[in-house]
Backbone:
């Protein structure tokens, strides 16, 4: 039978009573009913006096994909964290299946039927895959964990999702893409009524992403409401039924996807017309600044790599997750041991030198995982930007920091990259993803280098921050620097690069002029065809 309309009345009592009463109503929901499952009304949230959400209204229907868009810092993460039980709202109310609920915790939210896959992982790295999947919800046989049942259910879950993972593998030894699969699988452990996906394809290959899209469509058929956060417009085109745009913590618009072309969505997100995302980079190659010859990694992630990058050009390295492209960048910076071959920066050998020595020779590497490898999350923006420049004469003398010079030095970077907030004493870990990325890039732009290696520079970054990062890359080329762009984002690598190297299973299998390639041909090469 079709789910009826329910009166709006707050469910009083403890969280268990709330779950029981909501469950009664969820059971009445019919497949394909498209009735409203979740609504937030006038939701606001303050952190230390700063208003992150400003009286936001938002709703999700059964059997729909509702895309949530906005620049980093727009309030998306705050909204979904409230729904997932991470934070409690300062004001406003949450309606779930017609009843007002007061979500007390993450466990309470999951018990109601709200499952979330966050961009920042919550993996217990010392545990196995199966232990992560059932952490806090282990099947029991008497007083003991039923290991046999847990393992069988974990294998069945992963098989159903199409994820080729060993349930006995230690989670901390998995690749980032594999850890992303574990996070997604955790959300599917119990059938959700609302599924929140925050940048779910950021670390997945194209094939894995396609499987995720199939799962999303299957869940729609089962009447699950899905909140989908992404900065990849083609994913919204494929999946979304409706789109809500947030800006500066406020609700800007909710539109049917059919009435929301990409250009309009971008304008709503950034509050101004955006003529083009990718700048025109005038490539005028000069002398060779980076030369890689027959380079092989000690961990065998890639071998026999040859590549050159010249002053005033962007050189792209394209490849799927696991192709070895990130490992190549890390090896150039001394973060991955080299088995054989050479790396030269402006004619000087830096093979297997320390990262500090390589940085002093003029090469810097901006890693793909800013949370794990790029930022000191608990430290202020000021220290995160100045740390690579502390020994430069401008900031120190005889080992002593010139503190009076540090603040204006950092302020110049904050202004140049439009980092928000501008308070340089704010903790870097509290910034939005786009602003964290700007801080990490600013660290090396402030110091100055000849060669910049960007590894997936726009993962989890909104349109406005992308544009700012691309403008910085253009500016570096104009100054005569060599830029190496490692990316699995096809439009990004095609539009910014003058030349492109393609990696597949640890080998560079092709090199071409970007103007002679299109997405179809580049993707075919990435798959080794």
Residues:
């Amino acid at each position: 039978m079709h789910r009826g309309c329910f009166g709006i009345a707050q469910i009083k009592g403890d969280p268990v009573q709330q779950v029981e009463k909501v469950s009664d109503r969820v059971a009445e929901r019919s497949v394909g009913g498209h009735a409203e499952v979740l609504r937030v009304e006038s939701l606001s949230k303050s952190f230390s006096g700063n208003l992150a959400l400003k009286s936001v209204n938002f709703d999700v229907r059964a059997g729909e994909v509702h895309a949530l868009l906005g620049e980093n810092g727009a309030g998306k993460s705050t909204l979904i964290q409230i729904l997932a039980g991470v934070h409690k709202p300062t004001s406003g109310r949450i309606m779930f299946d017609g009843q007002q609920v007061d979500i007390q915790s993450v466990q309470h939210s999951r018990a109601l039927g709200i499952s979330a896959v966050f961009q920042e992982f919550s993996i217990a790295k010392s545990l196995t895959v199966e232990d992560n999947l059932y952490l806090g919800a282990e099947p029991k046989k008497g007083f003991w964990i039923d290991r046999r049942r847990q393992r069988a259910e974990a294998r069945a879950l992963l098989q159903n999702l199409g994820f080729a993972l060993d349930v006995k593998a230690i989670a901390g030894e998995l690749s980032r893409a594999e850890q992303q699969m574990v996070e997604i699988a955790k959300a599917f452990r119990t059938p959700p009524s609302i599924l929140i996906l925050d940048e779910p394809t950021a670390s997945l290959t194209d094939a894995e992403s396609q499987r995720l899209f199939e799962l999303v469509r299957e869940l729609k058929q089962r009447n699950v409401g899905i909140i989908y956060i992404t900065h990849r417009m083609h994913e919204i085109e494929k999946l979304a039924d409706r789109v809500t745009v947030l800006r500066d913590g406020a609700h800007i618009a909710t539109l049917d996807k059919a009435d929301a072309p990409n250009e309009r969505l971008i304008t709503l997100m950034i509050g101004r017309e955006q003529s083009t995302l990718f700048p025109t980079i005038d490539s005028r190659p000069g002398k060779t600044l980076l030369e890689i010859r027959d380079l092989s990694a000690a961990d065998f992630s890639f071998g026999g790599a040859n590549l050159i990058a010249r002053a005033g050009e962007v050189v792209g390295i394209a490849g799927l997750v696991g192709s070895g492209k990130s490992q190549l960048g890390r090896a150039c910076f001394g973060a991955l041991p080299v088995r054989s071959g050479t790396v030269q920066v402006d004619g000087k050998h830096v093979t297997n030198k320390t990262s500090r020595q390589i940085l002093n020779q003029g090469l810097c590497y901006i890693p793909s995982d800013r949370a794990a490898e790029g930022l000191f999350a608990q430290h202020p923006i000021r220290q995160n930007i100045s740390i690579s420049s502390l020994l430069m004469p401008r900031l120190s003398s005889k080992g002593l920091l010139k503190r009076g010079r540090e603040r204006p030095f950092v302020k110049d970077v904050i202004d140049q990259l439009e980092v928000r907030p501008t308070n340089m004493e704010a903790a870097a870990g509290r910034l939005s993803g786009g602003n964290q990325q700007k801080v990490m890039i600013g660290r090396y732009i402030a110091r100055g280098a000849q060669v910049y290696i960007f590894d997936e520079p726009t993962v989890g970054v909104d349109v406005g921050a992308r544009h700012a990062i691309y403008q910085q890359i253009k500016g570096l080329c104009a100054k005569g620097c060599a830029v190496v762009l490692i990316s699995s984002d096809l439009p990004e690598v095609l539009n910014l690069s003058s030349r492109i190297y393609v990696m597949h299973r640890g080998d560079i299998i092709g090199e071409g002029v970007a103007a002679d390639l299109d997405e179809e041909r580049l993707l075919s090469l990435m798959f080794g065809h």
